[in-house]
Design a protein that fits this description.
Layout (H helix, E strand, L loop, with lengths): L1 E4 L2 H18 L5 H4 L2 H19 L1 E6 L6 E10 L2 E4 L3 E2 L8 H15 L4 E7 L3 H10 L3 E2 L3 E6 L7 H4 L2 E5 L2 H16 L14 H6 L3 E5 L2 E11 L2 E8 L7 H16 L7 E6 L2 H12 L4 E4 L2 E7 H5 L5 H7 L1
Parallel strand pairs: 4-6, 12-13
Antiparallel strand pairs: 1-2, 2-3, 3-4, 3-5, 6-15, 7-15, 8-13, 8-14, 9-10, 10-11, 11-12
Helix pairs in contact: 1-3, 4-12
Length: 322
């Protein structure tokens, strides 16, 4: 087996296969496009392929002897990070160890290229992929629930607003922010709090990240994206600020800015924060204000290429190769 880059026409064909798979399985992430035939057609044949081919690189796993394609995925590169969308394995190779082999071969390839981290975006309904990446390959699964708080219940912290700063980071500083979050995730002192720290990484690779400062001191990072008609605020606080009044102050500060900009059309603000432990602490506080939790459409998994590449000596890869 070998890893190879896709040609443009191969990437377009692969995007059609992948998008059709999402529609057939009723993937939560893409349900908004399924309800209208014209929107569905435009998304599958224009929007989705355009995004895949413009922002991502198509990578395929090929049988070295026959030359047949075993599977593929789309990958975006940022600094030392590779961000991959769902891996697709062709039906005739499924349940035979091909997904494991693909990720291991790609990890070896990426590690040789000097990449350090792999971030995978997986649908929360794709249980086989989640099992493969987290249980079989030991990647870290991030907290995949979102806290929804109604606009009317957003706490007021007017007394502290004048001490809060929200600074949109320029692209040059985003790299430093990404390195900061990665160091937090993988340093020993944060090993017990790794799960969920990457909630801020998605906007980091897109460049839409903000600094949170209290009286000039860095308190963490935050970003905003819109899904299911309500904005999701992803917050990564420094551990020293966990369980502090500053957490809800920053959340309400961000929420009111979104409301002012009329981004919160449904009247709901979604929050993802910290590691699993931190998220549960924050969820408990916000539930007292009328918030609720629900499953998010996507789960992020993260692994170190150096460790993933070492899995290549396992029997599963050797047996699949033969």
């Amino acid at each position: 087996m070998k890893i190879a880059k896709m040609k443009p026409w191969e990437a377009y064909r692969a995007s059609l296969i992948l998008c059709n798979h999402f529609f057939q399985t009723g993937d939560l992430t893409y349900r908004a496009w399924m309800n209208h035939p014209l929107k569905k057609f435009l998304f599958q044949y224009l929007v989705f392929p355009f995004v895949c081919m413009l922002f991502f690189q198509g990578i395929k796993l090929v049988d070295a002897e026959s030359g047949s394609e075993i599977g593929f995925m789309f990958v975006m590169y940022r600094n030392q990070v590779a961000i991959g969308t769902d891996i697709f394995i062709h039906p005739e190779y499924q349940a035979k160890g091909a997904g494991f082999a693909f990720l291991v071969r790609y990890a070896q390839y990426a590690h040789q290229k000097g990449l350090r981290y792999f971030i995978g975006k997986i649908s929360s309904e794709n249980k086989p992929s989640l099992k493969l990446t987290t249980k079989k390959m030991g990647m870290t699964r991030y907290y995949d629930r979102v806290i929804l708080i109604p606009e009317a219940n957003i706490p007021k912290h007017d007394y502290v607003y004048n001490r809060l700063q929200l600074n949109r980071l320029p692209k040059k500083a985003v790299k430093e922010a990404l390195q900061f979050v990665a160091n937090q995730m993988f340093s020993r002192q944060f090993q017990t709090h790794v799960e969920g720290m990457g909630g801020v990484i998605e906007p980091l690779w897109l460049g839409a990240v903000h600094e949170l400062r209290y009286e000039g001191e860095l308190a963490g990072y935050a970003s905003v994206s819109t899904t299911d008609s309500h904005p999701i605020v992803r917050i990564c606080f420094l551990p020293k600020w966990w369980e502090s009044e500053l957490e809800t102050a920053f959340i309400s500060y961000l929420a009111r800015k979104l409301i002012t900009k009329q981004q919160a059309k449904s009247g709901l603000i979604g929050v993802q924060a910290g590691c699993s432990e931190h998220h549960m602490q924050l969820a408990g506080k916000l539930k007292e204000l009328g918030a609720e939790e629900k499953e998010h459409a996507e789960v992020a998994v993260v692994g170190l290429f150096e460790q993933l590449a070492q899995l290549g000596e396992r029997e599963q890869v050797a047996s699949f190769s033969s």
